[in-house]
């Protein structure tokens, strides 16, 4: 797995802080756009919703994601690893009930939370990056992208524009 500083701020190591996911607490409507093929011009659009909570004085964040049009639900669990000074991000699909490990590790820097992990696609190792940004009181965005060249270029494949509904 990549270290948390990879492709974020060079050699500068940011320190994760309690409360950095507090912005996500509440109820949300989500506009999803997901790449449907290798053609970067073909996107599927669908609605979703989420309820999120910060607990344990901001050292953990729980997300319940629901996408009725896909008959899908899942849970994001973000935990502040105080020893490593990074956020650990776990995911669970409700259909199989398995918490995916290892966690993706990251931190926030200049208003962006960047999570990078290595995955295998066929016989090639690729990087997968999730970014939380455009954070305000009423909106935020999560973007997933992949890189097949060690992080030099990124191809977005899923955009989630969140709008607070409470």
Summarize the structure.
It is built from no helices and ten strands. The chain is mainly β.
Tally of DSSP β-strands:
10
**How much of the residues is beta strand, in percent?**
over 45%
Please give the radius of gyration in angstroms.
Answer: 16 Å
The largest sheet has its strands arranged as 1-2-3-4-5-6-7-8-9-10
- Total discrete domains: 1
**pLDDT < 50 stretches:** 1-11
Largest sheet, in brief, is: 10 strands, antiparallel, barrel
The run of helices and strands is: EEEEEEEEEE
The CATH superfamily label reads Calycin beta-barrel core domain
CATH topology title: Lipocalin
Distance between the termini: 37 Å
What overall geometry do the principal axes of the alpha carbons give? globular
Give the mean pLDDT: 90
Keywords, please?
ten-stranded antiparallel barrel; single chain; 166 residues; 60% strand; Lipocalin; mainly beta; disordered N terminus
Descriptive report:
There is one protein chain. With 166 residues, this protein is mainly β. It has one domain (22-164): Lipocalin, CATH 2.40.128.20. 0% of the residues lie in helices and 60% in strands. It has strands at 26-35, 43-55, 60-67, 72-81, 86-93, 99-109, 112-121, 124-133, 139-147, 155-164. Strands 1-2-3-4-5-6-7-8-9-10 form a ten-stranded antiparallel beta barrel. Strand 1 (26-35) and strand 2 form a beta hairpin. It is globular. The model is unreliable at 1-11 (pLDDT under 50).
